[in-house]
Amino acid sequence: MKKNALVAITTAAILLAPNVNANAEWQFGIGTGIGITNYDGDLTFEDGNKLDVEYDQNDFEGGFGLAGFATDGTWVINLSASMVEYESKDTIQAETERSKNNFEQTGAELTLGYVAYREGAITLTPYAGIQYTDHEWSFKSSSEKVDIDDSWVDGVIGLKLDYKINEEWAWNNYINYAAGDSEGCLGIQTGVSWQWTESWIAGAYVSFESDEFDGEDGNAEFDYDTDVTKLGLTIAYIW
C-alpha cells in the first residue's frame, strides 16, 4: 500500500559541520533528516526496451538515513549511509493490464576534506572519497517479470563552499562528481545551517543529482539514467 509520507534520507553530513576555527580541537557529530525526493528517468535494456523510473513521495514505502562527521577545522571526515524503497502501480497496454514495480536504493559514502581557503566569512573545502550504490529494481505484470540487481563503487571528488552569515547561521554549498563503476554522477546542493546551541545544529537544503549507471544482471544489460531532486531538513548532535 502506498503511503503519503516524508522520506527518511541520509543526512548531508557536509551540510552539518559546525563553524570551527582552524587548529581547533576535534569535534564530532551524528545526525539524520527527513525530506522529499523525486526521481525522473528511465531504464533502457540492450534490446531497446525502455521502462520509466519515476517516483515521488506518493510512491514511498520506507527508508532511513544516518550520517556522521569529525573535524578539527582543517580536516573534515564525513561518513553517511542510507536506504530508500519506492513502489509504483500503473495500468498499461490500453488500460487492460496492471503492473507493479519496486525500486530500492542503498548507498554509503566516505570522504575526507581539507580546508584549503579561509578568509573572512568564506571557507573552501575540497574533498575526495569513495561512494557505494546498490539498486534493486523489479517489474511485474500478468505478461512479464523483470528483476534487476546491481551495485557500483565510485571515486568521488567535490568542493564545498561555506559562507558564515553570523555566529549561528551559515550558507552551505557543494558540487561533486563520482565515477568509476558508474558512467558518472553529478551532484549539486545548497542550503543553510543553524547552530542554535553548542551541541545541536540543524539544516535545510535542496539538491539535484544526475545519475548514469550501466550494469548487467544475468543476461540482462541495462542503462539507468535519472535525475534526482531532493528537498530536506537535517539535525545533528555535536560534541
Terminal CA distance reads 41 Å
Mean pLDDT: 81
Largest sheet: 10 strands, antiparallel, barrel
Strands, total number: 13
Shape: elongated
What level of helicity do the residues show? Answer: under 10%
Write the H/E string, N to C: EHEEEEEEEEEEEE
Report the portion of residues in β strands: over 45%
Offer a quick outline of the entry.
With 239 residues, this protein is mainly β. It has one helix at 13-16; strands spanning 7-9, 27-45, 50-55, 60-71, 75-92, 97-114, 117-119, 122-141, 145-164, 169-180, 184-194, 200-217, 220-238.
Secondary structure elements and pairings:
Elements: E1 7-9, H1 13-16, E2 27-45, E3 50-55, E4 60-71, E5 75-92, E6 97-114, E7 117-119, E8 122-141, E9 145-164, E10 169-180, E11 184-194, E12 200-217, E13 220-238
Antiparallel strand pairs: 1-2, 2-3, 2-4, 2-13, 4-5, 5-6, 6-8, 7-8, 8-9, 9-10, 10-11, 11-12, 12-13
Question: How would you describe this structure in keywords?
Answer:
239 residues, mainly beta, ten-stranded antiparallel β-barrel, 1 helix, 13 strands, elongated, disordered N terminus
